[in-house]
């Protein structure tokens, strides 16, 4: 009997990195290990004087490879039959857009002594919004000079993305900017670290990051042209000159594991390292995505992914984070949307607002109390913009809002309203897809919140008025990375020839399904109508609507529920 083959998925999140070891034949998870980043607060470098700033230290990414994989291997050795020599590949997913400056040798500036405390030299985490003014300038410049660029990224450029962060660095951190030879997404740099290809002349970049965040498209010959980026700042021409013409999808190899890393990890030298991609995109792969499937990866923020065959003609959809050929699966357009905060909103309420005072009400207690309430009973309505709006407004200068509070409002009522707000924001995204002809036939939610919070998932089903399926694994992103590794390893090494073969074998299982409750649906239809009024009134320039009756409408809904 042939020995089992395994791949490793590395999942770099906002606060930690996870290594997952998977059986290639079945997708069964042998073991996993999570390592929390060491630098900053929960792995994030912050500035108390600038709430928009969020950076990470590149040393955490490198140490995370070793600690997480060795931890997962140690746990896997407790399983009968596991042998490191049967690991055939490694895949990597990360947050994004999280670009980082590197020098002419591919060394991260933040790892050089002279930049050890320079925030500009660190990785600019996806949730860093310091470049909001620069993002708006990119939008305005593209509207006049390169409207085709905006058409492929939803109509507006975001402060969460590649070029706005680089331009912000040029203005705020000239020493770091001038010392950088180029900038690279960590989704591309981490696989290169494993493959020994961090030198800019060898480093392979992925279509996922380039296409969704960096104005890359084959129809205009690659990245945004030098004349365009130089019109915002001539210094950007140097960055553009450092970028390659060709990028790669996740069915292709970033390289093979170096001897140095093989010795550190106890793996075979030369095993396949897959091209990196963003966590949500590989999470969609781990969820078994296909035509008509709307995958929500729910974490600190959410990313919503759909795919459509490249044989189909698609409209450019305003507000999306891009329609990019092969950013998720070969042969398919990858369509990305999302919300800038979901789990972060719940954590903010528990950890910053600290409801209950000395009682220290946590997620579990607040959820337990919120479960006893009927839809609409709180009389509250919240806008989920505590970290700006990613889709469909693409505006990080929008802020959160809760309407309907009075002197009897409780923490649990507010907590439930926050959950409901994230569901309303998600429904806006679904409706935007369908308005432009992309049918949402099934909804699959994955991530820790999806698995651990039945209340939230029932509210989502009720607000969407459609069934919501939950993936049975908490580790869909890492699983997707492991699937990519199995494809890149290839059939001859015990992997797969394509994702069409790998995904049905390794992913696609669903766990519990939440079905809409008719009585709740009726109430949430009314509340969503009010949410849309607030959404458009506060978020859409020039929108004129009378919202003077919203507070009273909330009271009427509340009274009926009670």
Question: Helix and strand layout, with pairings?
Answer:
Layout: E1 6-12, E2 16-23, E3 29-36, E4 45-47, E5 50-56, H1 58-76, E6 87-94, E7 99-102, E8 123-124, H2 132-145, H3 147-151, H4 162-172, H5 174-179, E9 182-185, H6 186-195, H7 207-213, H8 226-232, H9 236-241, E10 253-256, H10 259-265, E11 272-274, E12 277-278, H11 279-286, E13 293-298, E14 302-309, E15 323-325, E16 332-339, H12 343-353, H13 363-370, E17 381-383, E18 401-403, H14 411-435, E19 442-446, H15 448-452, H16 454-464, E20 468-470, H17 476-489, H18 499-506, E21 513-514, H19 518-539, H20 550-561
Parallel strand pairs: 1-6, 6-11, 6-12, 13-19, 19-20
Antiparallel strand pairs: 1-2, 2-3, 4-5, 5-8, 7-9, 10-11, 13-14, 14-16, 15-16, 17-18, 20-21
Helix pairs in contact: 2-4, 2-8, 11-17, 13-14, 14-16, 16-19, 17-18, 19-20
């Amino acid at each position: 009997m042939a020995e089992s083959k395994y791949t490793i998925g590395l999942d770099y999140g906002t606060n930690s990195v996870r290594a997952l070891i998977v059986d290639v034949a079945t997708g069964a998870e042998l073991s996993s290990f999570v390592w929390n980043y060491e630098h900053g607060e929960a792995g994030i470098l912050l500035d108390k004087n600038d709430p928009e700033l969020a950076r990470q230290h590149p040393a955490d990414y490198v140490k995370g490879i070793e600690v997480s994989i060795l931890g997962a291997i140690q746990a896997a050795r407790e399983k009968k039959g596991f042998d490191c020599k049967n690991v055939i590949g490694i895949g990597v997913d990360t947050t994004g857009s999280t670009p980082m400056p590197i020098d002419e040798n591919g060394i991260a500036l933040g790892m050089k002594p002279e930049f050890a405390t320079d925030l500009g030299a660190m990785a600019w985490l996806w949730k860093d919004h310091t470049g909001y003014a620069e993002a708006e300038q990119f939008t305005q410049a593209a509207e006049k000079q390169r409207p085709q660029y905006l058409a492929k990224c939803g109509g507006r450029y975001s402060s969460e993305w590649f070029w706005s962060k680089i331009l912000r660095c040029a203005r705020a951190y000239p020493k770091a900017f001038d010392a950088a030879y180029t900038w690279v997404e960590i989704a591309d740099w981490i696989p290169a670290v494993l493959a020994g290809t961090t030198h800019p002349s060898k480093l392979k970049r992925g279509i996922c990051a380039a296409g969704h965040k960096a104005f890359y498209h084959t129809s205009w010959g690659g990245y945004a042209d030098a004349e365009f980026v130089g019109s915002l700042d001539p210094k950007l021409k140097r960055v553009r000159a450092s970028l390659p013409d060709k990028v790669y999808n996740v069915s292709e190899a970033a390289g093979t594991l170096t001897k140095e890393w093989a010795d550190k990890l106890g793996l075979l030298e030369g095993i396949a390292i897959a091209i990196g991609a963003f966590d949500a995109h590989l999470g969609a792969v781990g969820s078994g995505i296909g035509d008509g499937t709307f995958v929500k990866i729910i974490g600190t923020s959410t990313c919503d992914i759909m795919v459509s065959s490249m044989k189909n003609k698609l409209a450019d959809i305003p507000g999306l984070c891009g329609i990019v050929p092969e950013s998720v699966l070969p042969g398919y357009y990858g369509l990305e949307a999302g919300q800038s905060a979901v789990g972060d909103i719940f954590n903010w309420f528990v950890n910053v607002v600290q409801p209950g005072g000395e009682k220290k009400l946590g997620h579990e207690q607040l959820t337990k109390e919120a479960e006893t309430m009927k839809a609409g009973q709180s009389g509250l309505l919240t806008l989920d913009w505590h970290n700006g709006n990613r889709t469909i407004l693409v505006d990080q200068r929008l802020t959160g809002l809760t309407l309907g509070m009075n002197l009897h409002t409780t923490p649990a009522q507010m907590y439930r309203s926050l959950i409901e707000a994230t569901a309303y924001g998600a429904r806006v995204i679904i409706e935007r897809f369908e308005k432009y002809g992309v049918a949402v036939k099934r909804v699959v939610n994955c991530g820790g919140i999806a698995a651990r919070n039945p209340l939230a998932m029932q509210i989502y089903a009720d607000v969407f008025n459609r069934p919501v399926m939950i993936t049975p694994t908490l580790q869909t992103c890492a699983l997707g990375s492991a699937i990519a590794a199995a494809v890149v390893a290839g059939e001859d090494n015990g992997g797969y020839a394509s994702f069409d073969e790998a995904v049905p074998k390794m992913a696609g299982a669903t766990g519990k399904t939440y079905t809409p409750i008719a009585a709740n649906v009726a109430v949430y239809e009314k509340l969503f109508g009010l949410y849309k009024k607030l959404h458009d009134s506060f978020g859409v320039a020039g929108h004129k609507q009378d919202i003077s009756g919203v507070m009273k409408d909330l009271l009427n809904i509340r009274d009926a529920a009670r």
